[in-house]
Amino acid sequence: NNMKLYSFLILAGVAISIAHCKISIKDCGSKCGKIDSIAVTDCNTSPCKLNKGETYTFNVTFTPNVAVNAAKSFVYGILDGLKVPFPISQPNACVDSNINCPMSKGTSYTYSAKLPIKSLYPDVKVVVEWNLEDTEKNESIFCLLTPVEIVG
């Protein structure tokens, strides 16, 4: 199953080798699933250093403990207790995210989403909160916190 985690990204129709590292995560209220692992493109230190003007792919492997028909992704940066939304290109987790809905109970999935780091962001250490929500039950499939550093 680790092989699946490390070999799935295709950009511009060409397979690109991307280094992944295991980064520290904290569960922040997963109710409808369990987080198995997380990987971030071009991450070789912890916390991951995210360069301004770049886009990073976050890959979260998880297992829902209920059937899920529809899901939405919410991403925040937390700095000094303040939650600021991070815009992502596709909040519908069932579209362009490496998973298809409906999701089956007890089956492992790897959710893949791009997080653009805007040039106007300050150089700062921040905690990213990533929440994948079951839109029918209004409950978190997974919620994770991971520290990152915006640089550049």
UniProtKB/TrEMBL annotation:
GO terms for biological process: intracellular cholesterol transport; sterol transport. InterPro entries: Ig_E-set, ML_dom, ML_Npc2-like, NPC2-like. Residues 25-148 form the MD-2-related lipid-recognition domain. Its main location: secreted. Gene3D superfamilies: 2.60.40.770. Keywords: Disulfide bond, Secreted, Signal. One of its GO terms (molecular function) is sterol binding. Residues 1-21 form the signal peptide. GO terms for cellular component: extracellular region. It is found in: Secreted. Belongs to the NPC2 family. This is NPC intracellular cholesterol transporter 2. It comes from Ciona intestinalis.
